[in-house]
Amino acid sequence: MFGFYKVVKGTAFTSQSITEVAILEDYLFCLNQEGLIEKLIAPTDDIYEATLVEYQETTHYTEIPKGHFILPGFIDLHVHAPQWPQSGLALDKPLYDWLNTYTFPLEAKYGDVTFAKQVYEHLVDELLSLGTTTVLYFGTIHKKANLVLAEVCATKGQRGLVGKVVMDDPEANPDYYRDSSTEKALKDTEDFIKEIKELSKHTKQGVYPVVTPRFIPSCTEEGLRGLGDLAQKYDVHVQSHCSESDWAHQFVYDKFGQSDTHSLKEFGLLTDKSVMAHCGFLSDDDATTFRETGTAVAHCPISNAYFGNTVTRVKQLLHDFQVDVGLGTDISGGFSPSLYDNMKQAVMSSRMLNDGVDFEQAPENRGVSGSNITLNEAFYLATSGGGKALSLPIGELKEGYSWDIQVVSTEHLPIFGIETLEETFQKLIYLMKPEQIREVWVQDQLVYKQ
Ligand code: GUN
Ligand code: FE
């Protein structure tokens, strides 16, 4: 008797390092009652046959059909849930105008919890259907609507990390959309942390509160310091935007005479549970501070093509500075809710950074050589890198990790029996269509089925 709660037989792809993807062909994935992976059994292992014999004819056994594969559920490190209704809109504006003309008026509508529920249910369904099992969300300034978002995640089975956005500087934010005072912003954040911690007790996959200063330009110093204190007091995740765009990067230099990174650090906002979006303008010194504090980068390649004014040097951050990096869609700065789309864009953007784009420059001066990432590295960002960024046992198929998976079909792919499994993996990632994502599970709970 092996005592596993459930055994799943199938072929899976999972990152085993930043650059390598392991192919687990015909493995047995043995799960416990909490939905965690207790043991991986390879066909060459002694107990493989005996395990199959014990479970095969029982209701605790599942075999993934031929032509279908298991991938880890994806981890989206940067989503603005309230911006979902404007995905694909208004992307021709620069960041400052986009925020003030479109985004803040939309986010202000979430004082209405009925509207919030309608949008948040639609968004969580969409993300689950695209294989995204864990999401780090920005909400709005409204405590009630943020609670609705966390409840929607809890109910639908997504692992949601949700932040009440703080924008407390009356000089910097419109009167119709800002915290009424710094004191209130901090109190709402603290109450929200307590409420989400309570909700999490009754949620198998967990929901988590996140300390969320929108970005330095929208907050007072007192607010930022107070949020740093709350992050420490409750040992919770922290998120913000960091060094995104010429404008935002320069704003912080003009205000504090130093970078976002050093300012955030002084306010106590860089911890091993911090995830900072974008980071296109990190200096070597900033990157070293990220590593030393355990702070992670949420790379948002589609959004950055519109608002970033640069390509984040992911390759160097990962390999030279050993910073944790994952992927974010940045809905709606990024128009696509799909991490498949963002993996592809991460590869393409890195190649353009590597080679450069101005043909009038000589090839050796045109780009930043050593910048291109591979498809395997992009897959790492969407899975294992995201798990490490959040310091949670997710994003990999290995013992002790959560059974967060997507079952994908090769049915629509140009596969003619001549390709290796490694080549099949490449086609799956590059050519995936949403309808090929057949099932999605979070901690062994079925959350989406086609
Ligand atoms: N900086 C401050 N707020 C935002 C936002 O909502 N989206 C993006 N991309 N950048 C921001
Ligand atoms: Fe953002």
TrEMBL record:
<comment type="function">
    <text>Catalyzes the hydrolytic deamination of guanine, producing xanthine and ammonia.</text>
</comment>
<keyword id="KW-0378">Hydrolase</keyword>
<feature type="domain" description="Amidohydrolase-related">
    <location>
        <begin position="69"/>
        <end position="446"/>
    </location>
</feature>
<keyword id="KW-0862">Zinc</keyword>
<dbReference type="InterPro" id="IPR014311">
    <property type="entry name" value="Guanine_deaminase"/>
</dbReference>
<comment type="similarity">
    <text>Belongs to the metallo-dependent hydrolases superfamily. ATZ/TRZ family.</text>
</comment>
<dbReference type="GO" id="GO:0008892">
    <property type="term" value="F:guanine deaminase activity"/>
</dbReference>
<protein>
    <recommendedName>
        <fullName>Guanine deaminase</fullName>
        <ecNumber>3.5.4.3</ecNumber>
    </recommendedName>
</protein>
<dbReference type="InterPro" id="IPR032466">
    <property type="entry name" value="Metal_Hydrolase"/>
</dbReference>
<keyword id="KW-0479">Metal-binding</keyword>
<dbReference type="InterPro" id="IPR011059">
    <property type="entry name" value="Metal-dep_hydrolase_composite"/>
</dbReference>
<dbReference type="Pfam" id="PF01979">
    <property type="entry name" value="Amidohydro_1"/>
</dbReference>
<dbReference type="InterPro" id="IPR006680">
    <property type="entry name" value="Amidohydro-rel"/>
</dbReference>
<comment type="pathway">
    <text>Purine metabolism; guanine degradation; xanthine from guanine: step 1/1.</text>
</comment>
<dbReference type="InterPro" id="IPR051607">
    <property type="entry name" value="Metallo-dep_hydrolases"/>
</dbReference>
